[in-house]
Each structure stands twice: as C-alpha cells, then as structure tokens.
Design a protein that fits this description.
Elements lengths: L13 H6 L11 E3 L2 E2 L4 E9 L6 E7 L5 E4 L7 E7 L2 E11 L4 E9 L5 E4 L1 E6 L4 E4 L2 E4 L48 H16 L3 H5 L2 E9 L2 E4 L1 H15 E15 L4 E14 L2 E16 L2 E12 L8
Parallel strand pairs: 2-12, 13-18
Antiparallel strand pairs: 1-3, 3-8, 4-7, 4-10, 5-8, 6-7, 9-12, 10-11, 13-14, 15-16, 16-17, 17-18
Length: 320
C-alpha cells in the first residue's frame, strides 16, 4: 500500500474533502433499496440482482413479508413476472430474466409499508441456469426519520461534525468476555498509522471476527452501499456484514493502493482498492472494487464514521 499526503490538500476545506468521496468496497450481493423507509408509507422498492459467478441468473423469487402490501409490479424491460395471491394480497413475485455473468438487473415494485416501526426482512431466492439457487435476506428498517444523505461537516469546522457524535462505551461493542482495550491499540496520528490500522482491519475481516471488527467502527457509523444504508454498527453487523461473513469459506480479503488524506489531527479520509475471494455455497466469488472511509478519532482510536462503497466486475481470467 502507498500513502500520499501532498500540500495541495491544505487548499481544501473539510466540507470539500468529504464531498470528494468516491464509491467503494462492496460485495455484489442481492439488495433491496431503500434500506430505510417510513412506516405506513407507499414506497417504491428496487431489487438489484448481480450475477457474481460464471453461471447466468435466470429468475428472482421474492416472498412478500407479512404486513407489506404490494400495490404495483410494473413491467421490467426484457423480463417477465408472475405474482401469486392469497385472496387479494400479493404474497410472492417471480421475475424471469437472464442476467449474464458479471452483469446485474433491477426489478421494481411498489408497496405500502407496515404501520409500525421495525425491521422488514425480504426473503429472496436467486435462481441460476444450472438449476442451483441462492437465498438472500436483505432488510429495510422502518423509521420516522429515514436517512437521506450522509452527514457532511460545515466548511468552517476544523474537524468533521461527524466527530462530535457522543462516544459510546467501547465495551458495548464486544461480546461478553472480550475487553475493549484488548482488541485495538490506539494508533498514532498520521498516514502510516492509518495504513497499519487498515491492515489490521483486513486481518480481522479474514478471520471473520465480529468482536474485533467492532473496534474499528464508530457506534453510529453509516454504511452506504448499492443505493441502501445501514445506520449504526449493530444494524450493519446484524443485517449485513454478519450474515455475509457466515456464508464465506476460504475468505481472502485485502486493501491495496491506499491513499490517506489527513483533514485534522482527529479526522481523515482514505480511498483504496480492494479484492475479495471466497467460496459461497457452490459458487466461487472473485470480486473487486473501491472504498472510501471517513475516519474520526474516538478515545484515542481511529473509527470508521462513514463508508461509501461499490464493486466492479472482474475481468475474465486470461486463457492458459
């Protein structure tokens, strides 16, 4: 990994620096956007379906959660769809469309949300041309204040407003028997320290150690990926990262080409390439992309306060 901290960065305000974030780290999995919506609202949802492996996707099956009332399923270009009902209520939607390897498709439907706040879990099955399938369970949180845009610091501030969020008890992010101080040493300020810290994150990710990973995230972290959002470490752990890590075997994950920009003694942002290889069920995953992280120092330790991510398809392996 390399680091560059040129003098030109001094010309940028904190606000401008945060707006320079580019899309980054994400495993291309089936997702439903938005990840936050209002209870009782009429909401348009988008199901994004990528084909990660070499076998084309042929169909996508959605089981409508209890309390959700689907009101419209518009026609998707190049696809057909079938709905099944229980009385007047749509209970399943099946879209049929060939999605070649390393490509993706989106399917839209409109639904009325349940009236109470809480979590809606979408039960989705991705079906492939070889007869295999994969189950996914993305979620949408129903809240009166759904997130719209990532927090941005005012230009006049010396450090991002993100850093002023109340600090939570570090021990709250660990399972019983794990001491917070035992998981992450507070790094010194500077680019090299952040790169070392990021390498430690990679090791925790490859070990699938959620207790260790908790020490790298601010309790109120926001995760933007695929048009959706996770708010807070607990939400990200329970409804995104944790379920994915459980499905991975032979996991190999790494950052490279890291560029760190210090925007104050207790704030920085970093951009990096990433690679991810793993076995998921009967399929091999070979994914890559970019990542941007907004970092703040909390209690002497760097924490991820905001992450914005995207993936990109791998080029086919060269013929031997």
């Amino acid at each position: 990994m390399r680091s560059r901290n040129g003098g030109m960065m001094k010309r940028f305000s904190v606000c401008a620096a945060l707006f320079m974030m580019v899309p980054a780290l994400a495993l291309a999995h089936v997702s439903v956007a938005p990840r936050e919506a209002k209870p009782g609202a009429q909401q348009q949802y988008t199901v994004r379906v990528p084909t990660e492996g070499q076998v084309a996707t042929t169909a996508v099956y959605l089981q409508v959660p209890d309390g959700v009332t689907v009101t419209e399923v518009p026609q998707t270009a190049g696809a057909t769809h079938e709905v099944k009902k229980d009385g007047d209520r749509i209970v399943t939607i099946t879209w049929s469309k060939e999605i070649p390897a390393k490509q993706s498709a989106q399917f839209v439907f409109t639904a009325k949300n349940p009236s109470a706040a809480g979590q809606v879990t979408w039960m989705i099955q991705q079906r492939f041309a070889d007869g295999t399938s994969r189950d996914w369970t993305p979620g949408t949180r129903l809240t009166e204040t759904p997130a719209g845009t990532p927090p941005v610091a005012p230009a006049a501030s010396a450090t991002p407003a993100l850093a002023t969020a109340p600090a939570a008890d570090p021990a709250a992010n660990h399972a019983p028997g794990h001491a917070a101080a035992g998981h992450q040493m507070a790094p010194a300020a500077g680019d090299a320290a952040i790169e070392k810290w990021l390498a430690e994150y990679d090791a925790a990710f490859n070990a699938k150690d959620l207790d260790k990973l908790a020490t790298f995230y601010h309790p109120e972290v926001t995760i933007y990926e695929g048009g959706g959002i996770n708010r807070g470490w607990a939400d990200y752990r329970d409804h995104h990262l944790g379920p994915e890590l459980k499905q991975f075997a032979n996991l190999q994950f790494a950052h490279s080409n890291t560029v760190v920009r210090m925007i104050g003694p207790d704030a920085a942002y970093a951009t990096a390439d990433y690679s991810l290889k793993a076995r998921m069920g009967e399929r091999d995953i070979d994914s890559g992309g970019l990542e941007t992280l907004v970092l703040v120092k909390d209690g002497g330790a760097w924490k991820i306060r905001h992450s914005h991510t995207s993936s990109r398809p791998r080029r086919p392996a060269a013929a031997k």
